[in-house]
Give the backbone structure.
Amino acid sequence: MKDVSYRYSDAKKDEYVLKNINYGFNLGKLYAIKGKSGSGKTTLLSLISGLEKKYEGTILYNSKNLKKMNLDTYRNTDIGIVFQSYNLLPHLNALENIVLSMDISKVKVKNKKEKAIELMKSVGLSENLAKRRVLKLSGGEQQRVAIARSLSYNPKIILADEPTGNLDKETEDEILDIFARLAHEENKCVIIVTHSANVCNRVDEIYELKKEK
Ligand SMILES: Nc1ncnc2c1ncn2[C@@H]1O[C@H](COP(=O)(O)OP(=O)(O)OP(=O)(O)O)[C@@H](O)[C@H]1O
Ligand SMILES: [Mg+2]
């Protein structure tokens, strides 16, 4: 991100949420973005994920300007997102949530159900939870399903918005183990928005957003 500034379209002329952001992210590393509520953390993730386009400055991905890329393809292949509220479809079971994400992405997967179960296992979910509707899973289990889903098309970048905000310390540590493995062993770039000192202690690099104004 080079000199990136952003204000929402309904904001006044000088009301920037993000001002002159110069952050770099690499594969193989785990990052934390921290900052007070309202400092623009979620906004920053939406810029990185190509959801907000009217920013000033430049965002490059693999030396390519995001503004010149096909952002639908980028979002469906290169970026995986984990939301704090999980954003799973409640009327579907865990397996169906993951398979649906593969369907949307259009990335070729030979046996989607098999792959989904493999992903569930990789985040510590046993196969017998696959057919359970997500509302009947615990918060920590739902978060794992959300992580498995974000991995369904094997993206390079994982963006997680307060992924452990609702979890106890032990479960937070287990979720962090997964993110650390994805960065350090699977060579992904993992960016976690967090308020947790425990998370910050475990990442490779921390960026702190200051509230504008
Ligand atoms: N769609 C929107 N339109 C206008 N203003 C917005 C919009 N979304 C967020 N904002 C404003 O932008 C600022 C940054 O919001 P953002 O959600 O990025 O903060 P945050 O750091 O993620 O906060 P939190 O820790 O509470 O999640 C806030 O002042 C917010 O009110
Ligand atoms: Mg936020």
Summary: The mean pLDDT is 93. The chain has seven helices and ten strands.
